[in-house]
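U., I forgot to send this yesterday:
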Amino acid sequence: MPSFDVVSKVPWSEVDNALTQASKELDQRFDFKGTEAVVEKTKDGLIVRANAEDRAKAALVVLQEKLAKRKVSLKYLDVQKPETTGKTTRIVVKVKEGIEGEKGKILVVMIKEAKLKVQASIQDSQVRITGKNKDDLQATMALLRGADLDIELQFQNFRD
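Result:
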């Protein structure tokens, strides 16, 4: 029985490269001199810091540009509100990885409403699609690609 998995995995190596590039640009650009603008990766996600809120937002834009150039979707990012403490403004950017339970349910309902001859089941942070022939699976992929979801989807483990 042919099947494939729908996943949402962040390409961390590309994120690390984009962080390095953004850090270099923040160090070199004249408009960031003396603003102590920093982008870094922590256990909470990505942190953007500067000594003023507008500079922190500008540093965030630089980071987003670098991610986009490296073909990392901005759908992975969940930008929080800027937090000002003392002289520093900090923006936490949480990285969404995996398909959450609620989003998985939405995908399953969407597939069932399309009346395709496939079965969808939620497994951990992915959705497995099985069907009797490849054409139905490819139609399901096309349906999911065209869906307007706020998560980035990849298709893996296509098996005949």
